[in-house]
Amino acid sequence: MTDKLDDLVEKYLHDVDSRLKGVTKSQRDELLLDLRAHIGQLRMDEGADSEAEIRNILDRLGDSETVAASARQEAGVTDEDTADGGSRVKQIVIWSLVALVALAAIIYFFFFSLTTSDSAVGATNSAVGATLATPLWTK
Amino acid sequence: MVDGPQLSNSLRRGTLEFCVLAMVEQEDLYSTEIVRYFGVEKQLSTSEGTIYPMLSRLRRSGLLGSKWIESANGPPRRYYHLTPAGKTALENFRHEWVEFRKAVDRMVRTENDD
């Protein structure tokens, strides 16, 4: 029975920990240590030795997301930092593509300005350069 | 529209930490005692687990100090005490709070309410 109660507590602590992305290791460890001490203290004070009593202690602590959210906030982690690891990667990819297209355009212009036969260059170049095939100054 | 729970959440933010500082002004307390005191004040009570990240921040910013002390009958307890910086912050808050409260009372016309 005790094992089962401990498992309940460990699962709770694990759930909190898994939601602490962006919080430093030392702050995570510290929070888990505090929560563990809190649960241990209340178990003793209240003589909690049934599943219902342990659940009651955990309920009063708050659900794992509530506790983790306050830890992220107090640690100065913004929601954007944690919202989605992928969104940051996505942003980097998008901006890289934008930079690549801009670079291609610059190279194209540079190359184009050195040639005199604009129609030939415009026709054989990629879609990236296609919209730029007719520079403003030739209009 | 700000409803009841959301309103008291907003009011707690920024004031709760000074309640903690005041709690340990006279005597050192361990964390579950601090949590328990908040439980008694219904207007201030919140999920118990959210107190710990706040205590952590107050320690990191030097307003609270803490030390673990072995307990004769149970797990070790982390006792909190007010640092000189915490004392100063609490005194500042007391002054600010009174002026702030007076100003809000004038604006929302609650001067004569209890």
DSSP, total strands of chain A: 0
**Chain pair sharing the greatest interface:** A-B, 25 and 21 residues
What's the Cα radius of gyration of chain B? Answer: 16 Å
Could you tell me the mean pLDDT of chain B?
A: 91
Helix content of chain B: 55-70%
Major β-sheet annotation of chain A? none
Question: What is the H/E string of chain B?
Answer: HHEHHEEH
Helix content of chain A: over 70%
Question: First CA to last CA of chain B: what distance?
Answer: 25 Å
Low-confidence parts of chain B? none
Q: How would a crystallographer describe the biggest sheet of chain B?
A: 3 strands, antiparallel
Short description:
Chain A is an all-alpha fold. Helix content of chain A is 76%, strand content 0%.
Description of the structure:
Chain A has 139 residues and is mainly α. Chain A is rod-shaped, with a radius of gyration of 29 Å. By secondary structure, chain B is α+β, with helices and mostly antiparallel strands. In chain B, 57% of the residues lie in helices and 12% in strands. Chain B is built from five helices and three strands; from the N terminus they run ααβααββα. Chains A and B meet through α2 and α4 of A and α3 and α4 of B.
